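Our collaborator T.R. sent over the components below with a one-line note: 'Predict the complex.' Nothing else. No constraints on interfaces, no templates requested, no preferences about which chain binds where. So this is a plain run: every listed entity goes in together, and whatever single assembly comes back becomes the starting point for the next discussion.
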Amino acid sequence: MIGVQYGITALLFLLFGFSLMILMRWQLAYPGQPIPFIGSWFGDANAPGGIMLPEFYNQLGAMHGTIMVFLGVVPLAVGAFGNYVVPLQIGAPDMAFPKLNMMSYWSYFLGGVTMLSSFFVPGGAANSGWTSYAPLATIATTGQTFWLCGMVFLITSSLLGSINFIVTIVQLRAKGLTFMRLPFFVWAQLVTSFLLLLAFPPLEAASVLQLMDRLLGTSFFLPSGLVVAGQQLHVSGGGTPILWQHLFWFLAHPEVYVLILPAMGIVAEIIANNTRKPLWGYKSMVYSTIFLGFMSFIVWAHHMFMTGMGTVISAFFQTTTMIISIPSVIILTALLLSLYGGSIRFTTPMLFATAFLPMFGIGGLTGLPLGLAPSDIHLHDTYYVIGHFHYVVAPGTLFALFAGVYYWFPKVTGRRMNDILGRIHFFGSFIFINGIFMPMFIEGLAGVSRRLYDGGQQYAHAQGVLHWNVFMSISAFCLFFFQFFFIVNFFWSLWKGKKVNSDNPWEATTLEWDTPTPPPHGNFIKPLEVFRGPYEYSVPGKAKDYVPQTEPEEV
Amino acid sequence: MQVPYTVNTRNDTGLYNAKLGIWLFLSSEVMLFGALFSSYILLRVGADTWPHGYEHLNIPLGTINTAVLITSSVTMVMAWASLMMKDFKKYRRYLGTTILLALVFLVIKGFEYAAKFEHGLYPSTSTYFGIYFTLTGLHGLHVIGGIIVNAYFWGPGSRMWKTDPDRLTHRIEVAGLYWHFVDIVWIFLFPTLYLL
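Returned assembly:
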C-alpha cells in the first residue's frame, strides 16, 4: 500500500515539475512576451503583466531540478516500485520494518510540502540551482532555507527507506531464493539502496553546514573578503566554496546511479518477459551492477573540472570516469543481446522498455566527452550538458518508469491499461522528447550557456542556432499534451480497464505473479519455495514457454 | 502473516532484522560524521590561521565528559547483560544509570557552551568555533536521541519483558549499539577539537 502512496505522490510531483519546465520553455522561446492564458496567476512579484522576471525563472529552474530528482524520479523508482515489487519478488509478507516504511513515506511527504511552500515565502523558492552552490546559495533569499530543511526531510526518508530495503532483501527472501536466483530488478534495488544509504549522509552534513552559514552566521562556505552588491560581507570568512561542491557531488554522482539502476532493473524484467527468453548474461549484469555501485563513489569530482584542481587529481577522476562507463555498457549490451532471437511481444511496456535502450545509449555516450577534462572545459555549463543528462533521465529513466507502470498496473489493480491510449502516449512522447533534447546538443556545441533566462538572445556568436529554441519549446508543449493520454488512461483503466483473467496476465516467471491480484495483507496465501532462477522462459521440452520460479523440478 | 526474523535469527545470515538494520544505520552515521570530519580537515588545511583547541576549550571538563560517556557505555552493556541473565531489576538499575550519565554529560556540555557565550564566542566568531559548535551540537542531538530511546525502554517499553523477553533483549542490544556509536563519535571529537 505504501508503494502505491509513493507512486501517486511521485507522479503528481513529476507532473508539477514538468509544468515548471513548460513555463521556462515559454520564456526561452519567446523572451519578453507574456505567458498566454495563465500569465496573470503568478503575481507582480514574479511575472508583472505575465512577463516572467529573471528571478522567477531562477526559482523555476532550481525547483524543476530538485522536484524532478528528489521528489519525482527517486520516490517513484525506489519508493514506489521498490516498495511494491521487491517484497513480492522475493516472496516476503511485507517490508522488514513496516512502521519505518510509513515514517519514510511521511518524511518524504513533509519534505515535499516544505519545498512547495517555499514558493510562497518572500523572495520565492530556492533560486540557486538544484546544486545550491555556495556562496550564491548562502546569500540567497529565504527560499533556500526551506530548500535545505526540505532536503533534510528527504534525506531522512531515503535513509530509512534504504535501510528497510537492504534488510528486507537480505533477511526476508523466500526459501530457496538464493542471491543468484533474485530477479535483476531486486539486485538493482539492493545496490541502489546501498548508494542511498552511504551517499546521502554527506549531503545531510553539507545541508547542516549551509544552514549554519545562513542562520548562525558561520562561514564554512564563505571565503574571506566576499563582496556582495558592492558591500563587503560581515562574516568571519576563511571558508571554502569548493567544499560545498565536494560534499554535494559526493552525493549527487551516486544519485545518478540511484536514478538509473532501478530503471535498468525494470527494463530487464520487461525485456525478459516480452522476448520470452532468459536475460543474456544475467550474472555479468549483476556483477556489473555491484561494480558500478562501488565505482560511483570515486568519480564525483568529474563535475568539478572547472574548479582548478590539479592535473593529477583531474587525471584520477578522468580515469575512474572512463572505467565506470564499462559496467554501464555491459548492462546495456546484455539487454540489447537479450532481444536477439526472441519472439518479441510488442506490448506497451515493451515499447517503452525497448526505447529505453537507444535513449539511454545516447545519454551515456554523450557523457564521455564530458568525462574528459579537455572537452569538458568547452562543453561545461552549456546546453550540451543539459541534453546529456536529460537523455539519461528523461527518455531513459522516465521511459523505464512508464514501462513499469504499464507492466505492474494489472498486479496492483487487477485491470490492464488501455493498449491504444498507451501506444499513442508512447509514440507521441518518443518523438517529442527527442525533439526537445536533440537540438540541445547542437546549441551546446555552439557554446550556448544553460543559465540564460532569455535563451541566449545576447549571444552574438550563437545567433545561428537560437532558432532551435522555438522548436524545442513546441516539442515540450506537444510532449505535455501527450501526457494527457497517460493520465486519462491511468484513471480510466483504474475503474473501466479490461479485467485480467488470471493472476499472471503477462505469463511471467517471477514471484510477484504468484500471489492473488491485488495481493492481500501479507502478500502470499500459501507457503513459498523457490526452485529455479528468475528467467526460465522457453525452456526446451516444457509444455508452456515459461516456468515459474515456484515450480518444483521434475524427478 | 507476520514478518519473520524479528526475534529469531535467520540461519544463513545469522542475524535478526533489527540488528542488520542498526548496523546499516550506523554505517550511514559514519558517512555523516565522516563528511563532517573531512570538512574539518579541509577547512583547517585551507585556513590561514587555526587556533589550538587547548587555547580555547576547557580540557578538564572535556576529559570528565569523556569518562562519563565511556562509563555510560559500560552500564549500557551491563543493562543488556542483566537481561541476558534474566535479572530485570538490575536491568532497570543499569539502564537508569546510563540515562543519568548521559544527562550529566549534557549538563557539563551546557556549562561549557554557556562559558563560551559569556566570553562572546559564538559559531560566527571564527570557522574554528563554527565547526566546534556544529560537531558538538550534532553529537549532542545524538545524545538526546539516545536518552529518549533509553528512557522509553526504561519506562513504558520495558513492559515487553512480560510478553516477549527475547525481543526486549534484542531491542536493548540494538539501542546499545547505537549508544556505543555515540560514545565513539565523542572519543574522536574530543582529541580533534580539544587537544589538537
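Summary for T.R.: The helical segments of chain B are 17-46, 53-56, 59-84, 88-118, 127-154, 160-163, 165-195.
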